[in-house]
Amino acid sequence: MELLDKLKIKPNNLSLYETAFSHTSYANEHNTQSYERLEFLGDAVLELLMSEYLYNSNKYDEGEMTKKRAHYVCETALWEYSLKLGLDNYLKLGNGELENGGKQSKAILSDIFESFLGALYLDQGFKTAEKFFKENVVPLIENHEVDFFDDYKSALQEYAQTDRKSIEYRVISETGPAHHKEFTAEVSIDGIVFGTGTAHSKKGAEQEAAKDALTKAQKGSVSWEEHMK
């Protein structure tokens, strides 16, 4: 596997890595295992590695470490780790999932980061998993290359100072099959639409809409002050 060559990993059990990139839809079509069990394991390994990293930094108290860890292992962060490493290039999907845009799914790409880490831990041991983490995740954190923030709705409320304003989220469309729906939401403040967003859940679409509104406001592409009077 090209990825392993790039990371200078000599696998003892290549099938573990093949499983790590096999989505449930692919596993069902090919009568093989999906990445779900490896994802479960990788989640625990990542939490330990991140906890150790934050503890050793000696910068934060317990409460701050808990908040930092939550940001650094949230779905958005894992999605970006996957993209930075090019893990999406190795993802195996069933035909239906592929047609529905699974290659771009934030949820799936965040899953395979954890499943890959789980496979690496089983195949090479904790020390190699730790080395991978320090070489490929820590620099993204310390160089601020990843957007770890995931609660744009709260940020929008604070930014707009909405103690006297009315923020409303509304789902304006639903597309796709029942097992892979895509929702589009819009956010309005006092009846004026400021942003739209699309995701595979209603809550996710609302977060994307809030992010869109914040981005436009901060870039000055909407007359924020005029509407906030």
From TrEMBL:
* Key words, A-Z: Cytoplasm, Endonuclease, Hydrolase, Magnesium, Metal-binding, mRNA processing, Nuclease, RNA-binding, rRNA processing, rRNA-binding, tRNA processing
- Top-level EC class as recorded in UniProt: hydrolase
PROSITE patterns reported in the protein's UniProt record: DS_RBD, RNASE_3_1, RNASE_3_2
**What's one Pfam family the UniProt record gives for this protein?**
Ribonucleas_3_3
Record-level GO cellular component terms: cytoplasm
Q: Which domain of life is it from?
A: Bacteria
Record carries keyword rRNA processing: yes
Subunit? Homodimer.
UniProt-recorded name of the protein: Ribonuclease 3
Which organism is the protein's source? Candidatus Coprosoma intestinipullorum
